[in-house]
Amino acid sequence: MKIKNSVAFVTGANRGLGLAFAKELVARGASKVYAGVRNPEGVNIPGVIAIRLDVSDPASVAAAVAQAGDVTLLVNNAGIARLLPSMLDPGLVEAAREIFETNYYGVMHVSLAFAPVLKANGGGAIVNVLSDAAWVAAPFLSAYAASKAAAWSFTNSLRIELQGQGTSVQGLHVGFIDTDLTHGFDVPKVQPSDVVIQSLDGVEAGVKEVLADTGTRAIKASLSTEQAAYLNPETVA
Description:
By secondary structure, the chain is an alpha/beta fold. Helices cover about 40% and strands about 15% of the residues. The relative contact order is 0.13. Belongs to the short-chain dehydrogenases/reductases (SDR) family.
């Protein structure tokens, strides 16, 4: 599909990668860009329409979809992470529940609610923002990694389910992005704009999976080898 003249809905578009998506969509000539955010009053992005959205609340999702019945491109970007010192931390289970509500169930709620809208508008596309953590899970990010692994599986099933209605589904995998979420991490980071450009180029080309940085590509390439990154994490440090 073409980005120009499309109607896009980006969840979590108030900052970081979501903000970069919204700006690039406007720059590429999308006829309308919705930003699904918890606090619309705090959003002032030229050319973007802010809509109140809590992806973990089905009623909030339904209300947002009712306001955006012309969408042809959905970007499931909203996500959270919680760092714990150890997998043995007593807060792990509750942290996992909180993270899954946004990173997994949130993607499900929004995707399933918008699927009929996309079908009615000719098919369109969905981008699910995933992570290389779906394949290599550091203990301090174990709950986040599990949520992204689950979202990856859901994305692959959704792609099969929606192909009959002409909706393409892209899984966007990336490592650390230079945003507020990774502030203080002394690791290689990719710029949000670079990730967005690769993803939207992929949408236009019908690419089903985008690996947005060198580290992510190396991890994916290792998965079927005896030196798979999840078994040898030191090789991708």
